[in-house]
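3.2 Worked example (two chains)
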Amino acid sequence: MARKAAVPTEDIPAVTQLFTPHWIVRYLVESSLGRLWLLNRPSSRLRERMPYYIESGGGTDFLQIDTPEEIRLLDPAVGSGHMLTYSFDLLCMIYQEEGYALSDIPGLILTHNLVGVDICSRASQLASLALVMKAREHSRHFFRPDRFVRPRILSMENVVFSEGQLYEYAALLDLGGQLTGPVIKLLNQFGEAAALGSLIRPLLDNKTIAGVRAAIESKDISGQLFLVDTHSKVVRALTQADVLSSQYTVVLTNPPYMGSKGMNARLKAFIGEHFAEHKADLFAAFCVRCLGLTQKDGRLGFMTPFVWMFLSSYSALRSLFLAENSLATLIQPEYHSFFESAYVPICAFTISKNISQSKGVFIRLTEFYGESPQSKKALEAIDNRGVTWRYDVEPTSFLSVPGSPIAYWISPKGRSIFTGTSVKEVLTSDGQILTGNNERFLRYVWEIDSHSVGPTCRWKLHHKGGEFRRWYGNVEWVVAWDERARAFYKADRTARIPKEYLWDLEGITWSTISSSRPSFRKVLKS
């Protein structure tokens, strides 16, 4: 990831994989899947077995679930399967609580509940193996032929058709009614599936895709040797389209992270075309895609870099999370929460796909250095609303602050400031003067006779910035302000001069804006 050049397509899987700590996995699964089940079964005792569960976003706006088989959980960047293996454990508890036979539960979970997608075939194999071993752990008969169920882990593959290949295939199998123009366009969407993965949005809906797939799989091609390759590619493309056109109850993932500088030309073009407002990083596009994969009133969970919470390039993503959905919970670990030698600025959060006025729960662990205290302090905040690093805030209140930063630690009084009169309504800023040649036009105040500084003199006091200092100070410079100097400023391309009505007025200046304390200072007349 230290390379300066764009990442080649074949290296994207390795570059974008990042381990998810188990306590974060538990928090995401318990506060999404677990939360949804408890909303449907208020009397459930599952809560007693979920220490990382954060309750938020109640009310009547939740997905109604009658049986555990109705739950469909997707990890669209599954990696080696951490999200799914713990979801398997939680689903086992749910099935047991509903009275299902223990020997039937693993097969039911793998048949109905869990789906994973990845662009890395090795990661997909690991995820499948992990789920198989989970199933065997819960049922010693799972490896029997009548019990075994293959996990639904899809490794995305490129599916490329030569010109005319599909039309020839349709003609020989009499598929003219199924392989229509839109279907052919759909099949050609997967030419770069091994690089684009779950970001692909199938052009047709899931019902149409399922119908086409059923019609094609019913065809007998045993006597059509030359069609075997085309047939397998068509089925492969439709399988991938089926998974990516479905709607899921819960979507959980640690999506790939890659800024636009790391994207190769093809990936950058795809993101720009399909996720134009979210092109700053690959993870932002994945978050938007996951919202599209989730049913209304469903639940989502993510671990991502925390830059989306504050930077202007992610304002559209914040708007999606706050105005069109509900940011239910969020945990912001300290930078060294993975390993003390690694610097990983991440956050983990859950979203409800509906609009709720309920308060969200925000836990800030940034003051606790290193890996070891993170999970302990998170549990403490979950159990105790009174700790200073837990904040219960209505997420829509962030919308009142310009740019909607997720500044959950700001007091209600602090946020209310932004609902009153704004600074721009009472003050005008025209920026600083730029001389274009400081050596010629600037002097320290002690270099100039004090009688040569003033409203009618050649030199005027110049507030250039300087170190941190409040209220007044840093008056160390004077600027040439005679008619000849001003003419130069107006004519020179690199120079600039404030509007004349602002000359000789008192005002306020400041040093360069930073994340440190502000240092506004009063400007007196020269």
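3.2.1 Second chain
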Amino acid sequence: MTENIENILASFHPLEGKLLSAIKLGGPGPFAEEALLQASQLDESRFTMAMGWLLTKNLLTAEAAGSTTTVTISELGRQYLSQGFPILTIVQKLKSGNPMDISGLRREMDPLDVSKAIGELKNDQSIQIAAGGVLELKRLDIDHSKVVGRWQNLKKIVENISEKESVVLETCSSQEKNIINLHGSGRGKKGIFSLQEKRHKSYHLTVFGKKIIGELDLDRFAQEEITQLTPEMLKEGSWRNKTFRHYNITLKPSRAAMGRKHPYREFLDTIKMKLVGMGFQEMRGGLVESEFWNSDALFMPQFHPARAIHDVYFVRDPKNSRRLPKDILEKVAKTHETGGKTGSTGWRYSFKNDRAKRLVLRSQGTAVSARTLASGPNIPGKYFSLARCFRYDKVDATHAPDFYQVEGIVLGEGIHFRTLLGLLKLFAVEMARAKEIKFLPAYFPYTEPSVEIHAKHPQLGWMELGGAGLFRPEVTLPLGVSVPVIAWGLGLDRMAMMALEINDIRDLFSVDLDFIRTKKLNG
């Protein structure tokens, strides 16, 4: 053991020496990461490298020591500081007594800011909209209204943080925290504040580390070490009275970082291989899709709330699809308006061809199924697609704004609902490695009957894997298919959470190299 300690002491890099010196002078520990960083006088990258070496040598252990959140003003917040906060600006204009209409405000300010501000002021019963869109004050004490008071408090907080450049969220009052969190960036919205969380660590000496520290000679690291003996040093004799770094050739080499598939990529390939092995053919489609294939062909009415700007991402340029199949477009339009030849009464509204051409980011893999049904599929036939989809959604442990679905259809005589339930159970058990599953009734505009499949996650509990059902005649007949068709769209990201035994959907896209190198499919 003594020989081993001597070898380790002799092999320390100068960066490790600086860090160990700070630890020895710092007492018995534990050692806060920030304090060690300052005491060692290393920059953050060299500190992280040296600390990694010491942890690998089992001299120290690390543990979480809480976190702090730094709050700064976002670009939107700086814009409000320079140009004025929308609600306060509108109130000031109204108090001046000059007539003001909504259209004029939208020319001067961001239209979305104007709409939100007017909405808050109307709900607060502070203003009213007269004929011609003219805004009028309803209360003279508007400065004391709740909504104006909230924005005045917000303005003070923004000005205070801007003056200090940044503040730590944990040092703020509970009222300030609520306001900052409410107006922080994230969740698919631009916020007035930017929040940056930093996780802290503390370090403890191991038993072996305490022995090393006890034998450590601080004077050694105060001297410059020579790492290479050059001909010039031999000729000049300058090597005399110099300290040479010791090398330990018995130490194991560092782990070779061999390339491998990302765990999520491996999961996707496994899903594809199993479906192909079951006789399914792969369907493909573009990430950008027209509303016709994304919604209209699936008998989703053009007034359906899921087709609003708050649920799907619209493409800015180009806005519209150049061409849609005229014959299918006419059949789908008639089905929406009157039911066409499907025996349905339709949705009874005037179908808009221009709306059908609007381009969106594909919001559901079912758009690929619709294209396949319209292209003359094999009957009987089985098809699948691993489709990347996009929806406006709050990011949390089980939701993300872009995600993968495994979309599939089976068509042919004799296909029925029990066939679908059997396939869903097979997918949940074999692909998601689910131990417990359950079916719940559901509603989708394009399937009847419809069902949701849920699986029990060991940590998160029951979560929905996806929806399924039998395509309605209003979907299949206009596309030229007259046999029963079962369809499903399951969330591949959630299935991967089950199979890879992770508790947060964001971990699928982790930059943690250890996670990527070591995580394997369960079973």
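3.3 Remarks
The mean pLDDT is 85.
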